[in-house]
Amino acid sequence: MRSTIKDVSAIAQVSTKTVSRVLNKERYVSVETRQRVERAVAQLNFRPSAAARTLAGKRSYQIALIYDNHSPHYIHQIQTGVWARCIEEGVRLLAQPSDAASTQLADEIGGLIDQTQVDGVILSSPVTDSSAALDELERRGIPYVRISPGTEHGRSSSVSMDDVQAADDMTSHLIALGHRRIGFIIGHTNHTASDLRLFGYRRALDRAGLNFEPKYVRQGQFDFASGEAAADRLLDLPNPPTAIFASNDDMAAGVLTVAHRRGMSLPRDLSVAGFDDTALASQLWPPLTTVRQPTRDLAYAATELLFEDQEDPVHRRLAHELVLRASTAAPRPD
Amino acid sequence: MRSTIKDVSAIAQVSTKTVSRVLNKERYVSVETRQRVERAVAQLNFRPSAAARTLAGKRSYQIALIYDNHSPHYIHQIQTGVWARCIEEGVRLLAQPSDAASTQLADEIGGLIDQTQVDGVILSSPVTDSSAALDELERRGIPYVRISPGTEHGRSSSVSMDDVQAADDMTSHLIALGHRRIGFIIGHTNHTASDLRLFGYRRALDRAGLNFEPKYVRQGQFDFASGEAAADRLLDLPNPPTAIFASNDDMAAGVLTVAHRRGMSLPRDLSVAGFDDTALASQLWPPLTTVRQPTRDLAYAATELLFEDQEDPVHRRLAHELVLRASTAAPRPD
DNA sequence: GGCTAGTATGACAGCGATGTCAGAACTTGC
DNA sequence: GCAAGTTCTGACATCGCTGTCATACTAGCC
């Protein structure tokens, strides 16, 4: 039923080793032999057993994607990007959800490697920042690339966008519209991107000569509910902000909901900006001004780096983009 | 570095075969021997090579999830459910996005099986309905379970919810609120669920003695933009509907946007209902009345069925739930 | 005591590839 | 015409497990 290299070698009249050579595109196979083998492979629709290859050789033709993120949309983008590059490379993708905060993370990763002998690993935030996980990978000499790491940037190859600059751009945009009291909702405490975005917000205020006022800044957790809570507190202030910049779209959606609930007219009474440009952003009312994060492309680029197998860590930075929609406008004159 | 069964057997003072027996929970191992082996395994933190197991035995300890769906949220729920059951079973999950409409689907699946020797496959809609895919799986004798299949229900084990009843329930709810002109937006043409939901809508109208009026029904494609387009056409009718029931939440979001754009006051001027209860539903304004589809649980149950390995096809049906939020209300009196 | 059935263990082959190494068949340079 | 490469090919061991089969021990029973 399933055919093996032996079947192919019988048809092509060569040794199994030669078939293996053709399969692996090794040098030193004559053109004529190669063609004969390829014909036999096609005839049988032969596909080598991954298990046997893994056992005998040094490669498993599988990589793993380790993720722990609360945004399905983000994960989906990541998976799509990684997958696209894997297909091109003829490599399978193992999905490995996990808990970045768990003390067992390193052990889980060790288990994954021991069992599957994956050729490499892609880490997405916030697992990128678990040094126990990185230690484990390095101890075993498994190549890995991180997507948007928050810490130890020099430690491995990685791809990322410029969170600071993006948040700075968005804040500057709000300032340019005329806003002077700009609320900010910080992202999840575990994600370094949260700090970077906050920093970008402050930098833009500084440059514009505006005071940084802690009361206009609230902690969120990247989810809708925390966005609602933060918005409520910001809008309850005696002198509330005329614009709120949330560190991701889900929280921005929470802000919109609170504003609607209070009967505010958007964007006249309140400008709202998000971050990520998830599908959600364009499906809200009003459509959300946000930062387009090139998530899929980041994932693709990360996987590309993984296969390139560089000597020294390489970092690629992809461009973000401000997406201006109807949720931001000039503030109502005082 | 990596330890093998041999290392374990040396420490436990038994043959490698006995270690293998303990690992596989086979019968006929004395309690004392089992404990000795388990201690050695723990001491070495030993984990068997999946590749060697696959090659030598009949199992690969991997299953694949094949999906092709345009809703990230749905896929994420599915993955989470499948994954949860896999973990319990000590089995790895291979992610296999694919194109249900592609003529190469069967070949891709064949390749997947030949290469990885997966122990089983979970199919999610609409790949569930590709008979070429099912043929291929059966030809190779790979167990598979389908999540919400649309066709050939008897052909394999499956899990599903009652789409007809759910759509009927929602429509009845709108009727009970007092609506008489209820618009309906059909889902994607490839998904059988689309037909079932339409049927449920008609059934509820019938039972209430309301006429089915084709002009109140528009084709959508499960995405936001098609929801917008359909809503525009429905609301442009001379005698527009007072409620619109969209076959999923993304399209319902499109309806909300159109209504907002037209300056309508929701839900007074228009009631809107969705289907799925994705995260989106509660993040919109007004929060969306919808049908909670137990997607994660369906996936979990499907995976469970896969591992149970029944003789005859088994079908499990999970309950849906109407989630009533602020997007529906009684119509404005004429 | 001798028989059967059930329990417990190990020796050994083999799964389907690749790595190593040896050797044959060509080139090339002088 | 011969040594020294370079190209091409195959024999065979091997990767780390599990399947098969043989064997030994323990009860239980007539």
Note down, in words, how this protein is organized.
Chain A is α/β, with parallel strands linked by helices and 334 residues long. Chain A has 3 domains: 5-48, Orthogonal Bundle (434 Repressor (Amino-terminal Domain)); 62-161 and 295-318, Response regulator (Rossmann fold, 3-Layer(aba) Sandwich), CATH 3.40.50; 163-294, 3-Layer(aba) Sandwich (Rossmann fold). Helix content of chain A is 45%, strand content 15%. Chain A contains 13 helices and 12 strands. The first copy, chain A, has helices at residues 5-12, 16-23, 31-44, 50-56, 72-89, 105-116, 131-139, 163-177, 192-207, 224-235, 249-261, 279-283, 295-308, and strands at 62-67, 92-97, 120-124, 144-147, 157-161, 182-186, 217-219, 243-246, 271-273, 290-292, 315-318, 321-323. A 6-stranded parallel β-sheet of chain A has the order 2-1-3-4-5-11, with helices on one face. In chain A, helix 5 (72-89) links the parallel strand 1 (62-67) and strand 2. In chain A, helix 6 runs parallel beside helix 7. Chain A is elongated and about 90 Å long. The mean pLDDT of chain A is 93. At the A-B interface, helix 4, helix 5, strand 2, helix 6 and helix 11 of A face helix 4, helix 5, strand 2, helix 6 and helix 11 of B. The structure holds a DNA duplex (30 and 30 nucleotides).
